[in-house]
Amino acid sequence: MSQVIKLDSGVIRSDLPMADGRTIRYYDSAPHTRTASDTRPVEDQPGIGELRLDPLLNEWVVMAAHRQGRVFLPPKELCPLCPTRSDLLSEIPDSSYEVVVFDNRSPSLRAPEGDWALPDILGTDTDAGTAAGKCEVICFTDNHGGSFADLSERQVRTLMEAWRDRVRELSTHSYIRHIAPFENRGEEVGVTLFHPHGQIYAYSYIPARVEKMLEVAKAHHEETGRVLFDDVVARELRDGDRIIARNEHWVAFVPYAARYPFEIHVAPLSPVADLASLSAEQADAFPAISIEVMKRLDGVFGIAMAYIATWHQAPVREGREYLRLHWQIASVRRAPGKLKYLAGSESAMGAFIMDLKPEQSAGQLRDVQL
Amino acid sequence: MSQVIKLDSGVIRSDLPMADGRTIRYYDSAPHTRTASDTRPVEDQPGIGELRLDPLLNEWVVMAAHRQGRVFLPPKELCPLCPTRSDLLSEIPDSSYEVVVFDNRSPSLRAPEGDWALPDILGTDTDAGTAAGKCEVICFTDNHGGSFADLSERQVRTLMEAWRDRVRELSTHSYIRHIAPFENRGEEVGVTLFHPHGQIYAYSYIPARVEKMLEVAKAHHEETGRVLFDDVVARELRDGDRIIARNEHWVAFVPYAARYPFEIHVAPLSPVADLASLSAEQADAFPAISIEVMKRLDGVFGIAMAYIATWHQAPVREGREYLRLHWQIASVRRAPGKLKYLAGSESAMGAFIMDLKPEQSAGQLRDVQL
Q1: Are residues A190 and A328 in the same domain?
Q2: Neighboring chain A residues of B358 at a CB cutoff of 8 Å
Q3: Do residues B162 and B230 both lie within one domain?
Q4: What is the CATH number of the domain that holds A349?
Q5: Looking at the complex, does the CB of residue A209 fall below 8 Å from at least one CB of chain B?
Q6: Total Cβ atoms within 10 A of residue B16
Q7: Which domain holds residue A94?
Q8: Is A55 within 8 Å of B231 when comparing Cβ atoms?
Q9: Is B349–A208 a contact, with Cβ atoms under 8 angstroms apart?
Q10: How many other β-carbons are positioned within 10 Å of the β-carbon of residue B268?
Q11: Inter-chain contact B345–A63, Cβ cutoff 8 Å?
């Protein structure tokens, strides 16, 4: 039997057990009885990975050596993210769904057993840790051939409610320190499954880029009394020439110092720390602007744009007064047939070189006829 | 007429002017009179780019918007890095060469005019700067179809002398703060010219990854009195199971917390700050181990491995007591037909997930029959 929870905006969550002990969560925009059971044979759960410290940068690297064999670009009829409509038993037992969330079958991070703590950082004497955390898969639609830009506003609203629910629930685990919902789209960024979906990584440590953002924002706050990201949004609103879409609650812009061609940040006009903290009005206003942004991205060259779209938010229990929720979309195509690669300067030195002025890419994005 | 300079190991450098005012430097393992003149029509030099601060991370991003039109994977007969042997006038006027170095024709960074200073960092009030620095191209051989692994020991020794000469000379410019010679190899990492060559980026700011390494190494030194990278090499020598090659002066290993499949670090056993500080004996012992490492990399799957190989060294004028010279090779292929991508977790969060244990890839590299 399924456990049913009522969320905002009339969204209903129904939890059902999967054959191997995982849980599948259906998010429906209206009451819908979910009962289909997972009849696949039980599989052994993969072991937990290792956390090793890169001492040169004091950054944790996850060793997930059990993932090599994971599914790689299967044809449509073998897609594990489609609903189960034939003999092929996919990850989703029901024959249709709106949005579903379940643990990744080959997770890089997973729930630890018993007490868990991150090892102390002691240079090359640092112990290895276990790769605690959670890796969830979130399917945006049961339509295999669709994309984010093809979703209806109602579908994005349900997706938003699922994201908010996941952040709320994952935040209750004491071993989770930071949560990042993201979507990789396109073979160019290494997508292994075409079905429209995202992932939610819940880390047991503060990821390096968030740690740096936190450090910079904290220093800015101590110096000026202001929240850095609020200054960033204020500058974009003042300059205006990098804004590509706007409504009552959200603004979308190419940032002043973009690192990727057609990079877009989408931020609420009234700042909040994370997805769970959005007001109902803010959540309701997100579908229109997010669909517009994605349609503009695909419109620039008239081809599906490869991108990484990530929710940046404050960590679960620290620095919540310094960091703000926003959605960063990094696209890697700089022209038809030309990609932006992270080569020597970017990847070895962390020094980004941009071939396209942000004002120019903002203009191209604005010029797209919707 | 060329200007001739004698370097170590019998290498001779001959400088000649190029048509557009740049200088070409020939590095020869024995005296060789270089006189061929560049008869191409004079072209306008591109303008200098802009440095913009990404305020969320306090990192400079180079806006080099004039580079979009650069040459992209030309066929062999139009290769600008081949010597000039026919009607096609390439970047190298002579009909043969050993190693040559010249300024990139579409540089991301270039020499500033007059006094130059990096703007003060003031959050979103930070001024834009001009993209001062140098971007040089270094051709490893005049053999278009070769690769690093195909070079003779004598050729690598000449290349090493050219690298050392460039570091010495670029270090004399007051606007240069950090120098990174690197090689991108393979279309998979965005290579635009197949001819075996590398690049030398000389930055007017400390690149983000070096800044972090410096910060970590400095804190480690203050706490322990030791240099962090020396601890790293000591641990690798002690553990032993990640070492893949070694000689009297150098050791090559897959690092304990590798971020890339088949990542290899090559370090001198007697530590130095930068390429210019290597002893003659160390420089002489580099060709054998570097060629072995590259042959092992190509041998793992029997296909040319795509990689980014970068010299990490101490900055020009700061932190020289904390950072050490070493060569990092990051390969992106994890299996035949499978690449490692920097997707959501890596690129948006800076949190690396590895599919292959370092001890396993070290074993595969050691097992390659040379």
Answers
A1: no
A2: 63
A3: no
A4: 3.30.428.10
A5: yes
A6: 20
A7: 3-206
A8: yes
A9: yes
A10: 22
A11: no
- Amino acid in the structure at residue B362: A
Which residue type sits at B53?
Answer: L
Read off the amino acid at residue A369. Q
Nearest CB partner across the interface for B65, out of A62, A217, A356:
A356
Structure confidence by residue, pLDDT tens digits, B107-155: 999 999 989 999 999 999 999 999 999 999 999 999 999 999 999 999 9
Predicted pLDDT of residue A285 = 98
Contact A257 B53 (CB under 8 A): yes
Whether residues B9 and B59 fall in one domain: no
A224, A296, B68, B183, B260 from A303: Cα distances, Å? 44, 11, 19, 31, 30
Neighbouring residues of B240: CB distance < 8 A, sequence distance ≥ 6: none
A175 and A288 co-located in one domain: no
Chain B residue numbers touching A239 (CB-CB < 8 A): none
Same domain assignment for residues B279 and B170: no
B336 touches chain A (CB under 8 A): no
Task: Write out chain A residues lying below 8 Å of B234, CB-based.
Answer: 124
Determine which of B349, B357, B359, B360 to mutate to test the interface with A (most A C-beta atoms within 10 Å).
B349
Which CA distances in Å does B234 have to A125, A203, B220, B239, B323?
Answer: 11, 31, 15, 9, 15
Give the Cα separation of A108 and A134 in Å (integer). 8
Note which residues in 231-290 of chain A have CB less than 8 A from chain B: 231-232, 234-235, 255-259
Residue ending a domain, choose from A182, A206, A230: A206
> Whose CA is closest to B362, among B221, B199, B246?
B246
A65 and A202 housed in the same domain: yes
- How far apart CA B165 and CA B155 sit, in angstroms, is 15
How far is Cα B59 from Cα B84, in angstroms, rounded to an integer?
A: 41
Q: Both B262 and B326 in a single domain? A: yes
Q: Write the pLDDT tens digit of every residue in A154-185.
A: 999 999 999 999 999 999 999 999 999 999 99
pLDDT (tens digit per residue) in B226-275: 999 999 999 999 999 999 999 999 999 999 999 998 999 999 999 999 99
Task: Tell me which residues of A are annotated as active site.
Answer: 197
Question: Considering its fold, how many domains does chain A have in total?
Answer: 2
- Last residue of one domain, picked from the residues A181, A206, A231: A206
Rounded CA separation B123/A302 (Å): 36
pLDDT given for residue B161 in this prediction: 98
Q: How far is A131 from chain B (nearest CA, A)?
A: 10
**Which of A50, A63, A313, A360 to mutate against chain B (most B CBs within 10 Å)?**
A63
ipTM score of the complex?
Answer: 0.94
A340, A357, B26 from A360: Cα distances, Å: 16, 5, 40
Pick among B48, B134, B228, B355 to test the A interface (most A CBs inside 10 A)? B355
Same domain, B41 and B62: no
